[in-house]
Design brief:
3 domains; 22 strands; D-amino Acid Aminotransferase, Chain A, domain 1; alpha+beta; globular; seven-stranded antiparallel sheet
């Protein structure tokens, strides 16, 4: 545990990619496969199912250091990281200054995992014993593993790069070895370096090829429109549909197996030829066009989908790439070659729950821009541009794939609530709730926390502290004076929100210091956006 803690501290202390990469390589080169497996698991963004209730965890930490829960909560609001808050409190005589160094895998498998099967009283006794056996830094990492908030500024791509360098393979190969239901075991860790992943090969998806947003500078360098394969950018769930060995599996881009949530897609694929992997989008479908994303969300997180829900929310798989056929990996072929094979393969398939993503064609970029303007009417997000000679890369390769999205919706709204942020933003009020007018009342419409510069955040934070009207726990009610321009990607009716409206991916575009609260938008003007391009 001490070596893993040292790695975390080293990663957290640097913003340099090369320094982080070197630290990762040293760690993986030194530790046992049992510890290395769990380190890969956590650093790649995975988390174990939370074994204890966070409220209990806070109470036990408070009791261990002699603080009531409300004081622990106040400390948390200022520190911004629960694991760090509790470690700081426990460091005052509770944690051992000379802790025994137990391996990471033993801490996870012998200390954390068994907590799930214990009663709260047993959990408390066991956790207090663990706290007393660790120094403050190891206690901090232990708390992070318990709470699930394990973030250290290391991407999955960087972890793959470090492992790939040690294994002397391409990062894309290592990324593929880590895809799917990779288990943090010594044998699985050793297989990352030997390439022995045959036991899980039939279920493995490929690393997804990703696109960069198209900016003005890049747009000017695209060349002739005929050099690009252009499709609609669908507003659904990116997924790979795999049929190998007679089994159909659907993986989301987040490496979550979502097969059971889309039974009609599985039923359609059951009749397809074997050994095929498609890249595409899962969509809710209504007649001849996509339904709102909010409809698709009704399918997510379910172990079973009722016949009633299947009728209410019809799901389809929109295929736009062919990654494997007849057991052959096609990713090194060009975009144009893969598309030709996809069209031939899909030519005689019934539509049912399957669609082939249509190509978008125009004689010029001006004509393509005109088509892009119809995106919202078509219930899509814009266009995808894929260079015709490009291979299917793992992750982002600048210049090969671009996403040319339509401009977001925007409204002017008034800040009414504020809450402190976490991590780097701890101690500053950075999470805001915004409202619009309904007659003479302000109605909450969105929450947002991104979009302001560091200097603006500090300025807004000072204003919030000076203009607080009331507090509800960590939330401050502020004077309704500041106006911000809020952008969002989608808008739908919602019975769960007081405004009757739900917006998708809200963020702050700018602080409208030129406007007064009375100048903000009305709920009627926001509702009117539901009709835009419909």
């Amino acid at each position: 545990m001490k070596r893993f803690t040292e790695l975390y501290m080293e990663l957290d202390a640097s913003n340099r990619k090369t320094a982080k990469l070197s630290a990762l390589k040293r760690y993986f080169d030194e530790v046992s496969p049992a510890d290395g497996a769990w380190a890969v698991f956590f650093l790649a963004g995975n988390r174990i199912k939370r074994p204890v209730k966070l409220k209990d965890f806070r109470e036990w930490a408070g009791a261990a250091c002699g603080f009531p829960l409300w004081m622990v909560e106040e400390c948390y609001n200022h520190v911004g990281d629960l694991a760090e808050t509790l470690a700081l409190l426990l460091a005052d005589g509770t944690c051992s200054a000379d802790a025994a160094d137990r391996p990471l895998h033993r801490v996870v498998e012998e200390d954390i995992a068994p907590l799930r099967d214990m009663e709260p009283a047993q959990q408390r006794q066991r956790i207090e014993s663990i706290w007393s056996s660790m120094d403050s830094e190891s206690c901090f990492i232990f708390n992070k593993l318990i709470t699930g908030g394990f973030r250290v500024g290391v991407s999955r791509t960087l972890v793959c790069a470090a492992l790939a360098d040690l294994a002397q393979v391409e990062p894309a190969v290592m990324a593929h070895r880590l895809m799917g239901t990779w288990q943090p075991t010594p044998s699985a860790y050793s297989a990352l370096f030997s390439g022995d992943d045959s036991s899980n090969q039939s279920a493995k998806p490929y690393p997804f090829c990703l696109a960069y947003p198209l900016d003005e500078d890049s747009k000017a360098k695209l060349g002739d429109v005929s050099n690009w394969q252009i499709e609609w950018k669908w507003d659904g769930i990116r997924a790979q549909l795999i049929k190998r060995g007679g089994e159909v599996i659907i993986w989301s881009r987040g490496e979550e197996m979502i097969t059971e949530q889309f039974p009609e897609v599985v039923e359609a694929a059951a009749f397809w030829p074997d050994s095929v992997v498609l890249d595409g989008e899962l969509l809710a479908w209504d007649g001849d066009q996509p339904a709102p994303f909010s409809e698709l969300q009704r399918r997510l997180g379910r172990k079973t989908v009722s016949s009633r829900l299947r009728k209410e929310v019809v799901a389809v798989f929109m295929a736009y790439d062919l990654l494997e056929l007849g057991g052959e990996d096609l990713r090194t072929l060009s975009t144009a070659e893969r598309r030709a094979k996809l069209e031939t393969w899909a030519a005689n398939l019934p539509e049912d729950a399957f669609r082939l993503s249509p190509l978008v064609e125009a004689d010029s970029w001006e004509g393509m821009a005109s088509l892009r303007e119809s995106s919202r009417r078509r219930h899509v997000e814009g266009l995808m541009l894929k260079e015709r000679t490009a291979a299917y890369h793992a992750g982002r390769t600048k210049g090969d794939w671009w996403k040319w999205k339509v401009a977001p919706y925007t409204i002017d709204a008034v800040m009414v609530y504020a809450q402190q942020g976490h991590g780097r933003r701890a101690g500053l009020y950075t999470d805001y709730t915004f409202s619009v007018w309904q007659e003479d009342q302000l109605v909450p419409i969105a929450k947002a926390y991104s979009g302001l510069s560091d200097a603006e955040i500090r300025k807004v934070d000072r204003w919030i502290r000076q203009h607080t009207l009331d507090s509800h726990g960590p939330v401050r009610v502020v004077e309704p004076e500041l106006v911000f321009e809020i952008a969002f990607e989608g808008i739908n009716q919602s019975k769960r929100h007081k405004s009757g409206i739900a917006v998708r991916f809200p963020r702050i575009l700018r602080w409208r210091i030129d406007k007064f609260a009375k100048d903000a938008d009305t709920l009627d003007s926001v509702r009117a956006l539901l009709m835009v391009d419909s």
